[in-house]
Amino acid sequence: MKAYCTRVGGGPFPTELHDDIGERIRKVGAEFGSVTGRPRRTGWLDLPALRYAVRVNGLDGLAITKLDVLTGLEEIKVCVAYDTPSGRTTDFPHDDLERAVPVYKSLPGWKQDLASARSLDELPAECRDYLRFIETEAECRAVLVSVGSRREETIVLDDPFLR
Questions:
Q1: Residue 152 burial by CB count (10 A; 0-12/13-18/19+): exposed, middle or buried?
Q2: Stated pTM of the model
Q3: Is residue 39 marked as binding?
Q4: Could you tell me the domains of the chain?
Q5: Are 152 and 144 in contact (CB under 8 A)?
Q6: N or C, where is the chain less crowded by C-beta within 10 Å?
Q7: For GTP, which residues are the binding ones (predicted)?
Q8: Is 15 marked as binding a ligand?
Q9: Nearest Cα to Cα of residue 62 among 134, 6, 8, 110
């Protein structure tokens, strides 16, 4: 999973960013179609959607990619719930996604370049807090974190082949 959300094509995308931050994430994250070159839609991380994916797929670990794309943002918002016509919910509102309004929690961003980090301890505290928040809220641990686009810019927290 990416440290933020993207979507290709039309349809509801409640956490979509229609501002400079969305454009920055698109540019820094190279979020353009590989064949068409069309820009992908970008948005904040959607925890209700992530929790749903973890639950229905029986996941026991997350590979969190493109964490470095968020470097330099003053704050990072995360959708933790939705306000829907029937009330607030932390569940993914697949039946009423078009009318769902995201409820955000803001977390502090970080300025330091992440590419040289080879362990969680080498990441900025704010970055580690962001990862812990995702793990706690998704009820699923991170097993891999990418901090850059190169192979060596990956922190392996739990290698299933070494168990």
A1: exposed
A2: 0.94
A3: yes
A4: 5-156 (3.90.170.10)
A5: no
A6: C
A7: 40, 66-68, 146-148
A8: no
A9: 134
